[in-house]
Amino acid sequence: MGQTRVAATTAAQSPAAELSPETNGQAEEPLQLLGEDSWEEFSIAVPWGTVEAKWWGSKERQPIIALHGWQDNCGSFDRLCPLLPADTSILAIDLPGHGKSSHYPMGMQYFIFWDGICLIRRIVRKYNWKNVTLLGHSLGGALTFMYAASFPTEVEKLINIDIAGPTVRSTQRMAEGTGRALDKFLDYETLPESKQPCYSYDEMIKLVLDAYDGSVDEPSVRVLMNRGMRHNPSKDGYLFARDLRLKVSLLGMFTAEQTLAYARQIRCRVLNIRGIPGMKFETPQVYADVIATLRENAAKVVYVEVPGTHHLHLVTPDRVAPHINRFLKEA
């Protein structure tokens, strides 16, 4: 059983100003950071097209694999990655149907949890990476959690932001919603582009800002929409870049029992950063139950609470990065 450290960070006491216990009260030497321009586009061939990504840092190192949240894109990490150590590489990918990545062919359905786990495995096997470190936010954190549980001896570190495990739904809610979800999926599949809403740039920014309901600010929306919108070739305006079919997310959800069973499989070192207030979960107790279950078998579990919204890594990355940097530095 690994040791557990529980900490809380307040706005008045930024982790960047904390002293390291290894320095006997002396301030740590300034950390060399990646910076804003240390990335390039990266493309991964897959059977249905390509998975697009941003590779931060040197390509001579095995990267941390970073996965974003539902209907976001890898731009979600654009403000966090520059604050990570310069000797770190991060591969932040656009999940299938998100950002610049290929959409699934007509007739294929998104089972976002299971698809994502398989995608991580596909990438790891393609590049023969060993002892991987995973970073996830929201849906991306659910995927990294599931991967660490499915391949417990092949993951070294798991870093999740404002998510503990897959979204939990009651069996009754899943049963009642299946029919509606299937019809909605088929409706989206046959909706021609000419009938999809088209917006001006400013309209798109305002629409997304309102939809996120306080989780992001306007500058953060502009960062996300660099990959989240595309120009409409037939009209003077913009469309969402993501696949509309992604809006049907109910199918393939988990029960609390399933999530806890997977939590018991995880053996790696874990850092979980919970936003306060962060996301409002339908079953908030499951978050605490997952953390408690991880402590049973994981090599180490570090749980920290950081003031911020669900997108705290994008809106207030300076509060998040020091915790990640400290965790990466630890053996």
From TrEMBL:
Keywords: Hydrolase. It holds the Pfam family Abhydrolase_1. GO terms for molecular function: hydrolase activity. Residues 63-163 form the AB hydrolase-1 domain. Residues 1-26 are annotated as: Disordered. It comes from the Eukaryota. One of its GO terms (cellular component) is membrane. Residues 7-17 have a biased composition (Low complexity). InterPro entries: AB_hydrolase_1, AB_hydrolase_fold, AB_hydrolase_sf. PANTHER family: MONOACYLGLYCEROL LIPASE, SERINE HYDROLASE-LIKE PROTEIN DDB_G0286239. Belongs to the AB hydrolase superfamily. This is Kraken. The gene is kraken.
